[in-house]
Write a structure and sequence with these properties.
With 125 residues, this protein is an alpha+beta fold. It has a single domain, classed as 2-Layer Sandwich (GMP Synthetase, Chain A, domain 3), CATH 3.30.300.130. It has three helices and four strands. Strands 1-2-3-4 form a four-stranded mixed beta sheet, with helices on one face. α2 links the parallel β3 and β4. The longest helix has 14 residues. The chain is globular, with a radius of gyration of 14 Å. The chain starts with a strand and ends with a helix.
Length: 125
């Protein structure tokens, strides 16, 4: 059984909200988000989660995690490295057995995906 939890829910996604997670999976999801917040884009002083680069986090049976992420720009100099950083950070979370990171560019990232925390860090009000 695969449980999907979108990191960012848009108005369009409201209609297809994932089923609620179990209490254990909610804790695991929270720990995964904490791990994602330790990964920073080296050119931007904000973590990848607050920047809105994480599009989807799926929690599968046995702690299998599937993540869709993007970059601020397709030509990002760390494009090959950042998925490895994400995999390493999430793999260290207790209860995670394996992590698959998918790089996606649809929809393209834009500044509207950033959290208020990232906007404050970048002074983009």
């Amino acid at each position: 059984m695969l449980m999907t939890h979108d990191a960012t829910i848009t108005a369009e996604a409201e209609e297809t909200k994932p089923a609620p997670l179990s209490e254990a999976d909610e804790r695991l999801y929270a720990d995964i988000i904490k791990a994602l917040k330790t990964v920073y884009d080296p050119e931007i002083p904000a973590d990848i989660y607050e920047l809105g680069l994480i599009y989807r986090v799926d929690i599968g049976e046995g702690g299998m995690i599937d993540i869709d992420m993007t970059l601020t720009a397709p030509g990002c100099p760390v494009a090959g490295e950042m998925p490895v950083w994400v995999k390493n950070a999430v793999s260290a979370v207790p209860g995670v057995s394996d992590v698959k990171v998918n790089m996606v560019f649809d929809p393209p990232w834009d500044q509207s995906r950033m959290s208020d925390e990232a906007r404050m860090a970048l002074d983009m009000w």
